[in-house]
Structures are given as C-alpha cells and as structure tokens.
Amino acid sequence: MSDDKQNPQGAQATRRPEVSRRDFLNEITVGALGIAGLGGAALTYQYFSPNVLFEPSTTFRAGNPDLYPANSVTFLQDQQVYIVRTPEGFFAVSAVCTHLGCVTQWKPDADMIACPCHGSKFQPNGKKIEGPAPRPLPHYAINLTADGELQVDKLQIIKPDQVLKA
Ligand code: FES
What is the pTM of this model? Predict the structure, then answer.
C-alpha cells in the first residue's frame, strides 16, 4: 500500500470545529460580563476596606541624656527636632519654621537656628531673633522614661520655660 492515500478520518480530525455566530456572541457576552463582574467586585472590596493612614508616632525616644554634651544643640533629622542641653537641663525645640514650614538649620558658629527659606533666625531656645516667622519655635514635652532615656512628645507643646532636669 502506498503512503499517499488520504485518511478521511484523519483529515476530519484536524478540521476546526465550526462555531456559529450565536455561540460566538454568547461567549463574548459571557466574557464581558465576567470582566465587568470582576471589576465590580474589586471596586466593592476597595470601597469596604478601611482607608488607614499610617503616620509615624508623635512620641519618640531620644536616647540616654549622656549622649548630649553640656551646652549643646543636637538636630535629630528624622524627627525634625532639636534637643538642647543647657546647664539648667533639657528641652526639645521644633526644627520646623513657624513661617511657612521649612526645616531650619543649627548654625553653631553664630549660636542660632536659621531658616534657609526666608531668613528667619531663632535663638537655641526657639525665641525669634528676626525674620518673617510669626512665632518662636515651639517646645515639645520632654521627659525621662523608666529606663532613663529621653522621650519627646511632639503632640504636647509646652511653655518654653519648662526644662527637664536630668
Ligand atoms: S519658612 Fe522660614 S522664614 Fe519663611
């Protein structure tokens, strides 16, 4: 027998099944409805899931008091706070300018805190020297933890004459 003979069943097996227009439209419709359903489910899930904004804690530990030399101003960049140590004790001063919110810089040579944006200047205790800032730099509550570390609460503004003796 020759190999050239065609097998009618083999030829039939390789033919693609015919899809009617109705079946094609049904499949398209089911697919579109499925996609729309998934989108609706995703939107519903997003609507009902809580919108939680995780903000950093306003209270932070500033370490052992011995880390801060006497008569020093230490800028804590991640908290944007100055820890000031005077012979009377410690206080924590905001490093955010009260004019338009720029972060100030400690200038040890001039013994002052200066704002790079519009030129406000402050004493190390936050008192305004000059410039457009309407208020002094606020003082935050500072205390000692049970294990002897400094702790600052940026939500509590205190009077500038309150000093932590440590
Ligand atoms: S933001 Fe500091 S002086 Fe304007």
Answer: 0.70
